[in-house]
Amino acid sequence: MSVDIEHGLRQAPGRRAVWTALAVACMPTVAEAHAWNVPYYLPVPLWLYAYAATGTLIISFMILAFASNARMPHVGSWSVQRRKALRIPAAVLKAGQVASTLFLTLLIVAGLAGTQNPFQNISMSGFWIWFYLGSVYVSAVLGDVYAFANPVAWLLRIAARHFPAIETGRYRYPQWLAAYPALVPYVVLIALELFGAGKPRDVSVFLLAYIAYALTGSLCFGRDVWLTHFDTLGILYRLCAKLSPLGWRSLSNGDAAIQLRNPIADIASEPPSHMSIVAFLSFMLASTAYDGLRDTAPWNRFFWGGIYPHVVPHVPALGNNYALSAEVLLVWQWLTFAAIGVAYYVLFRLFCALQAVSASASLNGKAIAQQFCLALLPIALFYNVCHYFTLFFGQRRQVLALVSDPLGRGWHLLPALPTFSETTPAQSLINMGYIWHAQVLLILVGHLLSVYITHAISVRHRSTGRTTVVSELPLLVLTIVLTISGLWILSLPLA
Fold first, then answer.
1. Both 108 and 128 in a single domain?
2. Residue 451 and residue 57 in contact, taking contact as beta carbons nearer than 8 Å
């Protein structure tokens, strides 16, 4: 999300609130939950939340391990309850592709020709919130809708009519690369979100570069290869769609069929993923973890009080050059974000190696990581929802205004709507206590789903060692570690 939008939602609460927050922060048993920079003081110490979450995970694990009789539902077990699938006509799918392409075009035009005020240009909210994040949540609930409404795929199909090489490509794709080509744009996308200037023009440049990237990749390896291995957004939404109870498939006549399915059983039955997917999921976790951490008071004290003083003696100009100091801070942010992404990857690989050793598994740590990596998916997804759902709430007041004036030129494309309330934006905010407990619940649900998926994969494959229970213990410990770290980040006060 753009820095401007996010910081616009986090306004200073006033002198009295600031001094109150500082006073309470000195109390040893109080943690401050952050949201919109409005302090909320937990009714009980953070360690009690951590104990409760850990106990919930352990009890859930014990129930799954000893009360499920080691049996899991078969693939598609829900869909057999309905003999007829819901059919979506090809014309409707085509209309969806056209609509998504027109929306993408609007975002590009608005970013280039509209105002650079991020609050008045539709490209910022339209891309980051409605398109990027919205597609994540739609995919998780309704299934892989994006595969049938992908605007870039439609543009490639049109371009292939004039350049047939786009369909076939010129070179054979090296299979060992898997989804690594999609990881690079994903890291760039996250960096633009976290460290970008927050200007609508940046969105347009990224989208144009992404289209050029699609054309180049398709000319080299073919359209289908690009969509499978290069399409960052497609891979992201396809991963999120694995948790949806709705499965989409193409029919021979161009229609689409939608059926109910058991997502856990389907995930457990999938073949092992490539290590590139492990890296992809690691940076999914890192994006929200770092974004939640970077604006907190302890993190800022760590940089300005622990790192920066050691840099200044080597670069004396930093003492009086605030612009140069900002560049140093940006480099530090880049490095720490990359380090956190690598840390999640290494941590997961480490616990998978421990799982291979502790259970005397026939598979090594790498093979177990490939087999169990989708257990990270619900954690990453629910971290995302936990981190960004307040932005959706904050943007609801701007939707109609942006649609009425997408370029910020003072247009009034929609008729003026009556004002039903005199409440101010500050008065319409949700109680911070509700937000905190909703975030705690989301974190816990994500980790519970991870435990369930881990158990389902273990039972399905039975290839991790002597017993299913023993083989799952290291990943259970990892889940507990991630739960506690997530709650800790959530409890930190903002700077």
1. yes
2. yes
